[in-house]
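Worked Example 4.2. Consider the chain below.
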Amino acid sequence: MIDLLRYESAIRLGCFFVVLFLMMLWEWRQPRRSPSLPRIRRWPANLGIVVVDSLVVRLVFPVLAVGAAGLAEAKDWGLFPVLDAPFGLAFVASLLALDLVIYAQHVLFHKLPLLWRLHRMHHTDLDFDVTTALRFHPLEIVLSMLIKLAVVMSLGAPAAAVMLFEVILNAAAMFNHGNVRLPERWDRALRWLVVTPDMHRVHHSVRVEETDSNFGFNLPWWDRLFGTYRDQPRDGHAGMTIGLEYFRDRRATTLAGLLLQPFLNERRPVT
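Applying the procedure from the previous section yields the following structure tokens:
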């Protein structure tokens, strides 16, 4: 456990940069769609916001999810220690429970107007590529971390499971936001196991009924189970419009604009 906590940051950072580089390379070699804006218009803000998010999280939280899990393990806090659950069961159950919580949280951030104000920044990107996966408002990141800490400590989730979940979730988000082309038969098979780029791209459509579908970031099962799965966008992947109909100007492409978006008054259309 000590070694795990000691090298957590290096492991996560290393995985982040490797996956980011590989996805950028894949997007360059086999793009799914032609970008509507030059990358130089979007990438500085999208990459800059992840730096801001990281600094805010480090300033606000004395411990992050893996550290909280290590503390819970040391103190025997949480459901799994109370039940004396075997490590393997607690490990797998933690991965599934955390993924379900991320799905439920995502749905909640779409349904509640105040939370949507924070989350809509993710949807105002005018294109869809690996950097979109990094585009979350710091206030949403703080709320997400509070939820994650509460779940981790309530479950008494093993620190190893929490760290693996964090790595997988981060890598899966960059994968399923990729502007990459998969053979249709591969996509059909993979989307039973993981959220694919074609599956998640539907969630970034300007059509509200499509935005409110395919909420999963990692596992696709929750969307199918709870009736939020949508197979394809109405206009096709090449013809669909990415973003929000009411947020299509320069505020969607600058770092300052991203940080200010929750405080602007544009309202989401009612379906």
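The two ends are 49 Å apart (CA to CA). Residues 102 and 244 are 22 Å apart (CA to CA). Compare this with Example 4.1 before moving on.
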